[in-house]
Specification:
Blueprint (H helix, E strand, L loop, with lengths): L6 E7 L4 H9 L3 E7 L6 H10 L5 H10 L4 H8 L14 H13 L2 H11 L5 E4 L5 E7 L4 E3 L1 H7 L3 E8 L9 H8 L3 E4 L4 H9 L2 H9 L3 E5 L3 E3 L8 H11 L7 E5 L16 E4 L4 H6 L3 E5 L2 E4 L2 E4 L1 H12 L5
Parallel strand pairs: 1-2, 1-7, 2-3, 7-8, 8-10, 10-12
Antiparallel strand pairs: 4-5, 4-6, 9-11, 13-14
């Protein structure tokens, strides 16, 4: 409708899943804010984090690229990952180094990302959930514990409880901009992304979880297409919701979007995507018992011998919810 004020959509997560819906949302008549986890300690981001003691830049980089209006040729350069025998540059994405440089120049990751967002002409906002790198802590059901996203992921154990601290062991403090975005949101979307290492690291920050809980926004969880080995084995969509309730707060989700299109077993390269195990099953009865409205459909995109969300289909459904076409 011409002249209607743009609605605010806040997307919370990280990893490779978040850009799947950020790019199509960028082209809709909405204000988009991506709130991105800063607990990553693996790969190029982990190396930069350890060397420079700054927020890991990888998830931030992907969010900036997804919302950027610059030509694809430039974005390809920003995303370029060095294939070099040099021990420092090997496997580093150029964009990670640029974010690290700008952070060092300004002494503030939040300000650096906002400035870079202007340079990259992003349509929306990208907010690191905190100004300092955070450390993920997991208590496993076997009584053991894990510290750090990478260690928790490779442990391949069932997670009982998740928490997060600063590197000094203190409770994280999100920026005021993060809390304002949540408070002013018309819709808050969780994911798509890894439950325990992309979505929950944001929500288990107590102040963030409380702000989301108290927000009048419509809250939508995008269930994963596939389970993740050692983390969400045998999880249904309702199991994911229960994990969020257990780690954050009950009744923090209004809708769950779950794919029902069948993933062909002979298409998936399980060695290439070693975190994938089985397709997440839908349990609409349990969803409703949890106070969540299930929305099912074909949200599947098959590519690169893996199963992913179709961002365009997901965004169309999100807008239907926003426009009250789905109750």
């Amino acid at each position: 409708m011409t002249g209607r004020k743009k609605r605010n959509i806040v997307v919370i997560g990280g990893g490779s899943g978040l850009p799947v819906i950020l790019r199509p949302l960028r082209d809709c008549n909405v204000e988009v804010t991506a709130i991105v986890t800063v607990a990553d300690d693996g790969g190029s981001s982990g190396v930069i984090r350890n060397f420079m003691n700054i927020v890991p830049p990888g998830d931030i980089r992907n969010a900036l690229v997804s919302l950027s209006l610059l030509p694809e040729d430039f974005l390809d350069i920003f995303q370029y990952r060095f294939d070099s025998s040099d021990e420092f540059f090997k496997n580093h994405a150029l964009g990670n180094l640029i974010i690290a440089a700008m952070t060092e120049m300004s002494g503030d990751i939040f300000g650096a990302v906002q400035k870079l967002g202007r340079y990259m002409m992003i349509s929306g906002k990208v907010y690191p959930v905190a100004n300092v790198p955070l450390v993920l802590h997991a208590a496993f059901t076997d009584g053991s514990t894990g510290v750090g996203e990478h260690e928790i992921t490779i442990a391949h154990k069932v997670i009982e409880k998740l928490s997060i601290t600063t590197e000094a062991g203190k409770q994280p403090v999100p920026t005021s901009e993060v809390l304002l975005a949540i408070n002013h949101a018309d819709m808050i979307v969780f994911g798509p992304g890894s439950l325990y290492t992309s979505i929950l690291p944001n929500l288990v920050i107590p102040v963030v979880g409380k702000a989301v809980k108290e927000s009048p926004a419509k809250k939508v969880y995008i269930a994963n297409i596939m389970t993740q080995k050692g983390e969400t084995d045998n999880y249904t969509d309702a199991s994911h919701i229960k994990a969020i309730y257990h780690n954050v707060s009950k009744n923090i989700i209004d809708y769950v979007l779950t794919n029902t299109a069948v993933v062909p077993e002979d298409y998936i390269d399980y060695q290439k995507w070693n975190e994938i195990s089985t397709q997440v099953k839908v349990d609409t009865n349990e969803d409703r018992k949890l106070g969540v409205t299930p929305i099912t459909g074909d949200f599947l995109k098959l590519r690169d011998q893996g199963a992913f969300h179709d961002g365009d289909k997901i965004v169309r459904k999100l807008l239907d919810i926003l426009d009250n076409k789905i109750k």
